[in-house]
């Protein structure tokens, strides 16, 4: 299950970068389709994450991991939408990098995985 979880967020990360490049390149249709596939992967990240740890949801560190996982997804979506609308993404990028780094640390230091 950990592999499925890592695969889903790794693929989501790649799709996220593709969406940003397509948006920047003005390829609206491609960006839209990729963004929809990306949203499916958001769901898969949450499902595989919950499969890993929903029974541990009352454990503070696991609850934090799950909440921050959803926060990271929210930040990715905000960056994608704000990039499309031409709004500033600096603040959201900073938050994304910080929370992402922290969640990687948290995920790998929690006991169940690799
Ligand atoms: C983009 C978002 C996310 C990233 C980058 C991420 C990253 C990770 C990483 C690196 C691990 C450790 C895997 C291992 O040790 O082999 C992990 C495990 C885990 N993740 Fe996520 N995750 C994300 C979203 C979520 C979400 C949304 C949930 C729950 C709703 C969740 C729940 C869990 C649980 C329960 C574990 C098991 C922890 C353990 O090893 O004991 N994650 N995640």
From TrEMBL:
Q: How does it sit in the membrane?
A: Multi-pass membrane protein
Predominantly, its location class is membrane
Q: What is the annotated localization of this protein?
A: Cell membrane
What sections of the protein cross the membrane?
Answer: 6-25, 37-57, 63-81, 90-108
Q: Which domain of life is it from?
A: Bacteria
Record keywords, A-Z: Cell membrane, Membrane, Transmembrane, Transmembrane helix
Tell me the leader sequence span. Answer: none
Tell me the protein family, please: Belongs to the UPF0344 family.
Instruction: Read off the HAMAP family from this record.
Output: UPF0344 (MF_01536)
Name the UniProt record assigns to this protein: UPF0344 protein B4U37_06785
